[in-house]
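Protocol step 4 of 5: obtain the predicted structure for the target chain.
Materials: sequence only (see below). No template structures provided, no constraints applied. The aim of this step is simply to have a reference model before the mutagenesis design in step 5. Sequence pasted as it appears in the construct record:
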Amino acid sequence: MDDEHHLDYIVLTTDNSMTKIGQYPSVADMTFPELDAYKHVISKEDRKELGTAIGLFASGVGAGSYVYLRRILERFVYQAKETAADAIDNEMFERARVAEKIKMLEGYLPDILVKNATIYGILSKGIHELSEEECIEYFPVMKSFIMMILRQWEKMRKDEEEEKQLSVALGSIVAKIKK
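Step 4 output (structure tokens):
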């Protein structure tokens, strides 16, 4: 945003209190373009569901937004398992709880997730036990956590891409020098 952009808020005033009941552009509208930066490391399905989670949150739906975040997190875990292939025992993996699966996938998942495997439990508790208000209060942290995972994967992808480009460039120099 810059000085020419503005946000419009709709507020409800009752006695001596004000409650925000709307906003344009919505939180979701402002976040969706941010997701495009991760198009190389997030599946279309996860991108869509992250957008749904953000949209639900923007509409004041807490527990519903957690359902989508948890599904995304579960897919991250299973994608890492596919990458790990036979390095992780399939039978042990399938019997393990999600937090244990995350720990088993150390080296295949971003460190922030391995160190904070409790996020899955928080998302589950939000779906089953927390109030809508609590879910809404905690959602920005949950979303930021997912976004951090995407940022770390995007950084790794860019580093690998740069490494390949440098290897090709160095190979080209070596070929010219040998002549």
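Step 4 remarks: The chain has a mean pLDDT of 90. The two ends are 53 Å apart (CA to CA).
Proceed to step 5.
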